[in-house]
Amino acid sequence: MYVIGGTASTALAERISRELGNAPFGIPFVKRFPDGELYLRVGGRLTGEDVVLVQSTRTDQDVIELLLLEDAIREAGANRLFVVVPYFGYARQDRPFFPGEPVSARALGRHVELLADTVVTVDMHSPLTLKSFTKPAFDASGIPAMARLLTERPVDLLVSPDKGGVDRVRRMAQLLDKPWMALEKRRIDSEHVELALPSNGAPDLEGKHVVVLDDVISTGGTIVEASKLLKKGSVRSIAAACTHGLFLKDAFERIKAVADALYSTDTLDNPAEKASVAPDIAQLLRRECGAT
Ligand code: R5P
After folding, report:
1. Residues 207-244: pLDDT tens digits?
2. For residue 102, is pLDDT > 80?
3. C-alpha dihedral over 120, 143, 218, 251, to 10 degrees?
4. How far, in Å, is the centroid of ligand 1 from the Cα of 214?
5. pLDDT tops 80 at residue 291
6. 192 bridge partner residues
């Protein structure tokens, strides 16, 4: 077993290699041609090896690197190729919302799975996307990693910022044995949302340590509005927790201005990384793929 980390996921790939019993770990040589095209080369003796390739696809360049890495690993004669995409970009466009739109998640998935034996994602926006894959595809959960962190932090109440996150917050509530609620969210545009307490009643918030849990923090608009709303209820502290920390533009600073703590997993490199999904990805690889 050999683990290769693309430039978007080098640190996480190394953690996964350690979790897989210190499997040999490598990074590709990467450079850009004068016209901006990517050149890369993988080293190591990959002939006949099972290879775990780890690369999040936050940017279009990350996608190109992933596809080239898969091709290079196949060219090098690898046996089985397990492609781990911890943050799968374009996942939110999982259906056409208006006529003429693509199903971007499916379109990307088709290319990613082409040379893979198995694809592993983490908290994919919609589980339906994995159903469109023709190869075995598994979605690891970021919840156990965040739960390991939150057991060491004060938590009285878990909050999902929208109804779409109910399963996530309920699962976390079960793991931590804490109560939960889901806010009601209306998205105004890609950067603005309106949030309200649940119309069927909210628990008493006064003096509580509250954790707002989301799958992705992108512009930070959702978390900022959730924090402002919860503060009106005189909570004692607010922590924001997510699996995928994109933190676009000044999201990090805007959230830090209204929340007391900010936690993310390591599916994307970011300043709030506090929990690692490496043990959970390694466990899934061992269980579903027979990785040792
Ligand atoms: C929405 O469905 C997601 O679960 C997140 O709530 C959303 O992507 C967060 O985006 P932002 O940080 O831009 O509000």
Report:
1. 999 999 999 999 999 999 999 999 999 999 999 999 99
2. yes
3. -140
4. 7
5. no
6. 189
Give the mutation target among 97, 215, 247 for probing the ligand 1 site: most ligand atoms within 8 A of CB. 215
**Ligand 1 center–CA 73 separation, angstroms:** 34
Q: Which residues line ligand 1 (CB under 6 A)?
A: 161, 164-165, 193, 214-222
Active-site position among 31, 131, 135, 185: 185
**What order do you get walking across the sheet with 261-265 strand by strand?**
180-182, 157-160, 209-217, 237-245, 261-265, 273-275
Q: What angle do CA 41, 46, 52 make, to 5 degrees?
A: 85
Q: How far apart are CA 192 and CA 173, in angstroms?
A: 27
Query: Known catalytic residue: 231?
Result: no
Instruction: Describe the crossing of helices 10-19 and 278-289 by its angle, rounded to 10 degrees.
Output: 60
CA of 216 to the centre of ligand 1 (A): 6
